[in-house]
# Entry
Amino acid sequence: MQQSNDSAHAAGYSIIGLVSTALPLLLFAGLCFMWPQVVRGGVYAVQWPWMPSLDIVLHFRLDGLSFLFGLIVTGIGFLVTLFAASYMAGHPHTGRFFVYLNTFMLAMLGIVMADNLLLLFVFWEITTIFSYLLIGFDHESAATRDNAKQALLVTGAGGLSLLIGILLIKTAGGSLTLSEWIASDHQIRQHPLYLAIFTTILLGAMTKSAQVPFHFWLPNAMSAPTPISAFLHAATMVKAGIYLLMRMHPLLGGTPEWMGSLVVIGGVTAIWGAVQALSPSDLKRMLAYTTVMGLGMLTMFLGGNNTASLTAATTFLLVHALYKAALFLAVGSIDHQTGTRRLERLGGLWRAMPLTALTVATATMSMAGFPLFFGFIGKEIMYQGALTEEMFPQFATTITLLSNSLMTAVAGIILLGPFTGKRPDHLENVVDAPLPMRFGPGIMGGLCLLFGLVPWWVSAYLIQPAVHAFSVVEKEVQLAIFHGFNTPLLLSVITLTLGGLIYFSRKTLRPAVTAALDAIPLTGQRGYDITLKGLLATAHAVVDGLQNGSLHRYLRITIGVFAITTAAVWWFNADGWTLRLRSADLPLSHWLLVAVMAVAVLVVVRAQSRILAVCALGMVGGGAALVFLVYGAPDLALTQLLVETLTLIIVSIVLLRLPSLAGPPPGPVSVSRWVDSLVAVGTGIVVTTLCIAITNGTIDRQLTAFFEYNSYIAAHGRNIVNVILVDFRSLDTLGEITVVATAGLAGYALIAKRRQ
Amino acid sequence: MQSYILKTATRLLVGLILVFSVYLLFRGHNAPGGGFSAALVAATAFALFAIAEGPGPVRQALRIEPRVLIAWGLLLAICSGLIAVVTGRPYLTGLWWTPPGLDGALAVGTPLFFDIGVFLVVLGTILTLLLNLEER
# Structure
């Protein structure tokens, strides 16, 4: 589906890329410096106030779990950046690319180190936005833009859900500071809001970590440049949801709701991803589905509430990060060197790209779970974890067995497909990728083997500190090459056998899977399409109804709504107000003013020329200004008079260009005219009666007294109106002039558009 | 439309109205006036000018694109509040300076600059609409 369009770049390096490797490298080194302390269970914490009144603090905390994630993010970040420096060389937007990449990495570090939930949310949203920019990096293709938008909408919606969850936590009496909350258990599990909190947080994690039914955005995100896919899938974006579940585990975990839903959702996602991984012929897409499978597995193990399954989750996190990043980058190399990543066009490359072949070999061996590789260790502990799940252990074990077998088969396809067999003619002159592109995958491929040889070291220095950070460990679970003859080992043997069987029957299985998948009527993708279409149609209908381009209708709606809502509010709060004119004995001059205004109104209504109508309207406005002046509001009168004058001028300019009102001979008055008069008279009645009622009541003069007293003392001004505008309430004024400025520019744009 | 009476009167009036507008702007803190009204008065001056001579000469006399006035006005208003932040007070707190020796007859404060910002935004907006409509 996605043809590679970033493969034809010139060889060489992007200088910006090489320079920007310094950031992840320095961060990685910094983390290593903290390693000894973290292994001993130490915690680093710093904080700065940000919005203390809202309980939002720039509170960062590094414990074992953050540390493990931090190492993955910065370590893989470094290797990916280095890879991209060569991969993206010659691309016109390398600068933009590396800024996005590094910002994304920092945001991800922010997520795993934030100790304040709202701060975590801020970083969460930054990763959403930057993943959008990264996935849509080749923005000239419409499909890419759609895929990026899809990722943004799905994960963005999840982000909102997460925000609701965080606010509910606050409502339920929890602390926004994670460490504080964990230290003093707020009994959130017994709270009536627990289910709502759990659901909203889970939705956030599910969308971000591509769990069924929200998994579809992830394979589509493959339209990103390959280094981005590697980074998003192996180390960052999708792991954010997993991180969230881990962090929340000691607070929300362990309930039947948590365990049941996570095991089922994770299990379904794992098997769904694993089956779909068999189908595509695009290597990258295949890897994307295996990521869905991996994320499902992680979620499923986080459903457990014992050290074995939590250790399984943590271990598999690292296993997956290493082999997945290595494979993505290696596929990127293949794509870069051959110009394709479709299975049917690749073959026999092992001689041409020996180091890449070796990398893919170690990574796929780890993925398949062959003994001595890190994946084997991961698989052993996975079976141990699945067997000890509190809920549905048989289901979990079956899922793990089936998914792992499928993974073994997929690993075989990825390794043997491109590298063995006969090399096609069009690949005759292929050579291995440049050094920086071999370096990253090579390192990670090497680690897939190395970590498998020293599991006790990995266990003590990486896994256990992380597990301790988010769970109470009763009995340490050690990783080892050989645990003895037990059920997990037996299951491992079955997995490899079954995987081999699937691999050898791949020629019949793969078309069957593709056909079966096509036959499914409602997938997540189609659900997304329907939802999006429905949303757009609704928006269209509403906008077309309310904003059809007729100024007349806007005014009618605006004024009508104003009158109705004002009347409603007044009606329901109007006990004890009287409608009595305070003094009917007005001087003659006031009556004259009223008469002039009334005549002007009549002229407006009856006028046959627009200019006459506008002038008469100006008279009404001028009369209102005089009323203000008579009753002691000179500022208001001045402004009113000036506004009237300018309105008159501007409207006249416009009106001179419009046809006359006369038009066809007067027939029966149209319905529209009646509606207009109803709105006008209704509004007049509401406002008039309201004014009379207000003047009859007692007016609270506290504020007036305050301003009169403080105006000169605090603000050096005697004109209270102006002092309020520019000093006491200047933030409001700032908002208002921003609106004025926006309206001015929008008006300019409209006029300029008409002129074209 | 060529009206010599209007043109001649305009030459006299525009200057006077503009001076009045500045007067309104500065007296606003103690008596009716202020940035908003001052901007409206200034805008009537330019509107008169535009009616008498057409929008072209108005642009020449202005020397600055009205849209740019909007931006400068907004910037000035925003920045006038930042001075308070630098001195550790909440954003937009009014700060005042009374020159010594004048016995408090003159006080210059950040709200004045804020008001000038309001003046520029409102004037720029009206002129943008007015001139572009006239030129259509």
